[in-house]
Amino acid sequence: MALLEVKNITKSFGKTEVLKGIDFSLEQGKVLSIIGSSGSGKTTLLRCLNFLESPDTGTISINGKTIYNAEQHKKIKDDELRSMRLHFGLVFQSFNLFPQYNVIENITLAPKLRLEEEKLSAAQKKARIDEINENAWALLKKIDLTEKAKSYPCELSGGQQQRVAIARALALSPDILCFDEPTSALDPELTGEVLRVIRELKDSNCTMIVVTHEMEFAKNISDEVIFMANGVIEEQGTPEDVFDNPKSPLTQSFLSKSLESF
Amino acid sequence: MGFWEVTLSLLEGLEQTCLIFALTLVLALPLGLVISFASMSKFKPLAYITKVFVWIIRGVPLMLQVIIVFYVPGFLLGTPLFSRFASVIAAFVINYACYFSEIYRGGIESISKGQYEAGQVLGMTKSQIFFKIVLKQVVKRILPPISNEVITLVKDTALARVIMIVEIIQAAQNYAAYGFMWPLFYTAVFYLIFVGILTLLFGYFEKKLDYFKA
Amino acid sequence: MKKFIALVLALLLCSVSLFACNKKDDTLVCGVTIIPGLNEKDADGNWTGFETEFAQEVGKILGMTVEFQEIDWGQKYNELNSGAIDCVWNGFTANSTDKDASGNDVKRSDLVDFSYGYMLNQQCVVVKKDNLADYTSEASLAGKTACVEGGSAGAAYVSGVTDEDNVKSTTSQINAFPEVKSGAVDFIVVDIILAQNMCGKGDYTDLAIVEAIELDSEIYAVGFKKGSELTAKVNEAIKELEANGKLMELAEKYGFENVLKVSETIE
Q: Quick check: do C and A touch, 3+ CB pairs under 8 A?
């Protein structure tokens, strides 16, 4: 059974139909890349998966369990929304670290806030906090920023900030980690360190959806590629299928333009 | 009319000045936040009513508001509803809360959407996002305009004289009845010290928040 | 978030109810400004002066506790009409006028109810001592700049003797003194009782009353809100104090024996 199953997702802003019925599924431990030109709807799709936008129609299921159904979720309660969101992590194009917290606090803030909502004895609480801190340090080691634990975001380079943002998203152990053009806001020489972290995550069997403009990276890392155009999935398949033998003329012209720019 | 006698009686006036100042701040700072929430409310009628209210309060001189709060209930009922001091506090709190609310609104709206969304995808509640993430960044941004308002408040307390709260200027003015003008000029020293302390305090707060960029 | 808003609103309501005003029926609240000799505070902060003791004697007869509330003279009608004070008992010239909202003269007796008059007053001209020789008659005021209390009897007087552009108004008589001392204006017109207490003292050693110019006399009375039941009661008490000699005793104590005069009409 697929880990993630997305069926018939549509989304309109006013009269503009941005998503016109999206269906796809993703297996545990696989990496899906979504490519396409600006305005094709790929970022909106990602935001729908994280419930920053609520889809107008369609369903989203995790492990066969439907967590979102547009029919039943016309009005979603805040609590419900929060638990739905926890299935997904999101790494933003512009990092969005919390500037007043240092690196380790950025990573531990959300788990600690969740802990406060639970009714626990002092001893249990202490144990859980230790667990959260340990986990955060482990993540920090993974992104190779242990020595920056007490630094504030303004003291870090863009690449370092984005690596912290990845660790922050992982701290809540989401089922699927999403990236929204994670390297677009970075200087070219800093993209490498972020892409390296994503590649390491793939090696540790992390399920990921990556919206990206880095064609070379998408080709290398993905198990599956979706090319979106005008709010629909125009082409879908393995990297070899989509990049080397594109069938749709839209895909072909997009790829040739993308390659031109390099 | 010795120097110390005058100083002591001005210090008594200063006590009233400080009391008006402190009570106004303690009540108007949180009330301003509530008003700013109302003016940004998604429920449009509430937002519009709040904006009109803020327009009226900011558009009418504070001195007139003090007079209205104290005298008008008396005109209608034959006896004043609030004591002189309570009227001053009520007028000052409402007036300053409206000014603060606009500063808060500016600060809150200047925080990028990304900060809210980052909180949302990490499963935080709305109030966790506001109090744990947004508020401190807002505070850092609004500290300079707030300090401006607070310093203005120190001097606005002199308006309480209009319904005869004996604050420091009025205490000095009473000496004028005996032909002494210098106590009035002497009050400037007290104001300067008061504002000097506040300036240092706000400088300290700004430095405290210097460690991050927002 | 909702909790926070509720907390703030609750806090405000509590503080308002704490400050709510409760005035008692058996107190007589007199609105006063500080005028040396009439209403002033001694070194311990207790009220003294002729008007103070006069009001306290009347209070004794009526069985009321007398309280003194300092007021802004310009707000005296608001203070009365809102019930914040019961009367203005503070050298209140009864046979004078005030300007209404559109600038027309209105008799004070149309705005408030007056008790019997009890003391004669006069306006007088005050100038710098050095210039005293220049002021020999009313004619010498022509073309000079003046400062008066807005709406006072003095204001009515100066408009007749000098050009209106030369006249500056202040909010109280007290505030007219620095104007003439600093040289901002040439002369001021104020109550003679006040001027006698101010000229030659404190910062005003260089000011003097122009004896050569004598103005019409006025009368002081206690002002009440229109229709107040207190007016008649206070009048009776004034009569009683006149009859038993207590009033003259007080006048002598403060040096006003020559101007004390109880009169049932104030025009």
A: no
